[in-house]
Amino acid sequence: MKAALAGLTTRGRSFLAAGVAAILCALALGENDLLRVGVLLLALPLVAVGFVVRSRYRLACRRGVEPSRVTAGRDAQVTMHLDNVSRLPTGLLLVEDHIPYVLGGRPRFVLDRVEPRGSRQLSYRVRSDVRGKFRLGPLSVRLADPLGLVELTRSFAAVDTLTVTPVITSLPRVKLVGDWAGGGDSRARTVAAAGEDDVSPREYRHGDDLRRVHWRSTARHGELMVRREEQHWQSRGAVLLDTRRIVHRGEGPASSFEWAVSAAASVAIHLVRSGFGLRFLTDAGEITAGLGVTGGRSGAFEGVLLDALTVVRPSRHRFLRDGVQALLREGGEGLVVAVLGALDPAEARELAAVHGRGGHRIAFVLDISSWNASSAVRHPIQDSHEEAVATLRRSGWRVVPVAEGCDLASAWSTAGAISAAPAPSLRAAGSSR
Hints:
Immunoglobulin-like; 4 domains; 7-stranded mixed beta sheet; 4-stranded antiparallel beta sheet
C-alpha cells in the first residue's frame, strides 16, 4: 500500500489535497454539501490506489529470443507474452524492456486495456555489431488507473541472455596438410584423406554389439568373430590467437583485435568441419580442444569455441610465450594456423621452434600500422615488425601480411597457394599504402 501511495501522480496528489482541504473547510463552516465533495475528492485517489494494488500482482510475463545465439551484425527477434491472470481488466499499461544500449534503444509499448484472462504479444528486434553476452530484461510494467491518479511500476524477475558471436566467414577449401591421429582396434599402413575402414575380424568379446558379428569368419574359425571397430583417422591441427592488447590497434568492431578474433573463429570452424581434430589456443594457453567431423562432435566443439570467443577480451600479457609453449607440448600439432598482431624478433624466433610435424604452418600477421593509420603515434613494436616477419618466413612459416579491410576468404586462399616466396600484403580493394 505504501508503494501505491508513493505512486500517486500529480493529479492524484492534487485530488487528495483538495479533498482534505474541502473536508476541513466543510467542518469549519458547517457545510454538508462541501463535506460530501471533499469526501469524494479524497476517496477517488484511495480507490485508484486499491485498484492498482489489486492489479499489480495479477500479471505474468514470458519472453523468448530467436535465435538466442547470433553472429555480430545480425538481427534477433525478441517476443514477449504479457498475460492478465486476474478477473478484472487492466488499465493503461506502459511496457518497457530493459536492454543494453549496444542493442538499441529500450523498446516501449502502450496497452490501453487487457481483458480478464487476456494476453498480449509484443515483439521487437535487436542487433549488435559488438560481440558479447547481453542480458535482456527485466521487463517493467507501469500500471495506471483509468483516471490517471496512480501510476505504479512493476519489474518482473525473469531475464534472458542473447549471445552475439564473432562474425564467421565462409572459407574456400584449400590443400592443407595435418598430422594424422586415430584410435580403435586397427592401425593403418597407408591412410587416405577420407580415413580407413578396417574390417578384418577378431574374436568376440563380452559386450560387443552382435550386429558386428562376421558370420563368414565365424564359420571358418569355429568361434564367434566380430568386425573390428572402424579406424577413423583425421588430421590434427591447432589455431593460435594473439589477444595481447599491446599488439593491436583500433577500437570497436573495426579494430585489429576484432578482425583477429573473427579470423581465428572462422579458420577454426572451417577446419573442424573439414574433419580436423583441433586445439584452440591464445597467448595465455589452451582454451579448448575438440574433435573434427569424424569424431561426431564438431557441433559441440563449435558451440564451446564460439562461447569462449564471444567473451574473449584483449589480455594484459606482454609475451606470446605461454601460447607457444602450449603448442610445443603437443609437438607442433601438424597444421598450425596463427593469427598474430605486431611481432618482435624474439617472439618470431619462439614461433620458429614450432615445426608442425608433417603439416603446414600458416601465420596471418596483422599490419597494425594500417589500422588507425591517421594516428601520428607510432606503435612501439612496429619498428621490429618486418624483421620478425622475415624470421618467420625463413623458418618455413607461410606468412600472410594482413592490412585493414583485408578479405579473410582471399587471405585464406593466399595461404593455401603460398610458396616459399614472400606473399604480398593483402589490402582492401581500392586502398593504397
